[in-house]
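Hello Y.,

Per our agreement to keep a running log of every chain we model this quarter, I'm adding this entry. I've kept the format consistent with earlier entries: sequence first, then predicted structure.
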Amino acid sequence: MTTGATDPLFDDLRVADLRKSHGVKWGRVTGDVLPAWVADMDFPVPEVVSDAIGEAIRNGALGYPDWPDGNPLRAAFAQRMRERHGWEIDPAAVREHTDLIQGLQLLLHLATSPGDAVAVQTPNYPPFLATITTMGRRRVDSPWKRTADGWEPDIAGLARAVAAHDCRVLLLVNPHNPTGRVFTRDELGEIAALARRHDLLVISDEIHAELTHAPHRHIPFASLSEDTAKRTVTLTSAGKAFNLAGLRCSVVHYGPPRLLAVRDAQPPDLYGTVSTLGVAGTLAAWRHGAGWQARLARVLDRNRQRVADAFGEWAGAAAEPPPQAGYLYWFRADHLGVSAADPVAEVLERAGVLLDGGAGFGADGQAHLRLNFATGAAVLEELLARLGALVRR
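Predicted structure for the entry above:
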């Protein structure tokens, strides 16, 4: 049974309506299969965002934008970092990209060469891992540790990997995807010291930062110290926290002045530009979406506890704790009684549920699955019922 209060804005979802959506999440399934794989929420777009986009269209904002002082996202992002985290940044060091993957690819293109080593903590977001490999960089995996208390970053192991492979770059995912772990200040301090010793460029993906669950708090990596800021590029977007991935709009804060200068020396439109509607939607979310986001936080907290309780019933003490951030639950495939060979395909065939997981998350992900629980209460209950039937069989 569902625990916690329901919210009609997020819980009054009909599967028949979701199946009519044009997004990839529901578009990749057929029949009565339920999707819980890609990191898209099933919830409606915040009304303030749809209103802002509609108003922009009505006001003729589809022509060339006039931003003589630079894209307004820059100042808005700086203000948000100051208000939420006390992190003071110069808007002049912020740039825009369509999404985080494009930002990562541009940074690797500008700051590294084929054959250079890039350290990454695994398991990790599959498009990031694939980017490093397809761009011809040497991917150096550093596995996380699973302890009795949950997932922990193996910073000593990361230090050994960086030293052994002469890494140039560290790709940091904070909060972490897929484990949902939020780094502590002490852990980030150890990573910053490691970056300083080895003169690493740190590319910090912080797109899940606004989805942390109390009492955990996100700390921007670049906010730790002046040295850390000067070697860190921060990637983020309103896409995850407000369900706006389709707007294709993200921001990048360039800590290293030299790297920003290299970036700005490129032809201005070579790597694409964000649309005026993406800017309008993002600004509306940041400026007026607090109420929607607060309600979302309560629903996600309820759902993560419900998922963790269900897995606790199925796997006992071996079950993973609820994620500290986000809406993704990472767990061992054998909790459902499925094999590690191809757990995604097995769950799809036997339960009619499409999850994510497996080797795409790195070698450490082979025997694991990822469940997206950002959906209405009734849909989540049906998902868990189908997964629970696997366990009982």
